[in-house]
Amino acid sequence: MKDAMTVISERKSVRKYTGELISKSDIERILKAAMAAPSAMHMLPWKFVVVSEPDTLKQLSAQLPFAQMLEKAGTAIVVCAVTEEAAGGNEAFAILDCACASENILLAAEALGLGAVWTAVYPDEQLMIAVRKVLNIPGDIIPLNIIPVGYPAGEERAQDKYNPVNIHWGKWS
Amino acid sequence: MKDAMTVISERKSVRKYTGELISKSDIERILKAAMAAPSAMHMLPWKFVVVSEPDTLKQLSAQLPFAQMLEKAGTAIVVCAVTEEAAGGNEAFAILDCACASENILLAAEALGLGAVWTAVYPDEQLMIAVRKVLNIPGDIIPLNIIPVGYPAGEERAQDKYNPVNIHWGKWS
Fold it and tell me: Which of A21, A44, A62, B36 could cross-link A74 (Cys pair, CB 3.0–4.6 Å)?
């Protein structure tokens, strides 16, 4: 398996999949990585809905303009933020913690030779309502994103996004 | 170097440091990892302030109750979210993208045998104002966190936070 720095730099958004399904064991390894994320005050305010039923994937992709690849990927993870379980009951911490968990999912997929991509649900209220409805998610839970996971068709490559102009040494100015 | 899945599971919050300074080369490798994060619509709405001047670290730790370790770490990275450069000019996307960049920083530090910890600034308005003042950060920029990076004193261990109750298979209910 590749070292961590290589996986971080080679991770890319994969939107084309072969159609081969990933194993339950890989899903569990990916979710273990998700739950290894840091969280404010160690509150772990996250839940994960794993969707692989074709009709459910179809219903989701019908609602989400940027998630048309869900059916072909065959598996999707919906990262859900639970505000009332976050530090101070603060939505911002729930979102931040779940963003870190999501990044771990993307990296774990890359590490396992799989492909994934963050398709946004939050902060779009209409998309959140639609996803909650399809997946029976309670109204106080925030579906942050839908992450399809599958075998990449091999078309996407990581870009080098390093730009030293983004670094301020010492102070901003 | 350890493989990515190991680094993800072994990453922990390091709050005790030896005092030895990390190299500029390691800082740049860590920031390269940060900028490899995904971002909505590929907007890359992030900047990074690298602080190593002892007096500046002292000023920051004086303002931040959970960042008393900054001086001992010797180096700190402040991840800054730039709303006007985010997808749709949306603050939520700036925050999410910078959270992913922050998780990459934490993982890169672990991969390099260093220690780091996310100390929160956002969403606390008073802390954001204080950090902006010390570092001359413009008022429209969001200092998301301060991440000290240094050599770990070796006291902290990762916890196993995997909990299958957090997984919903198929639908939420």
Answer: A21
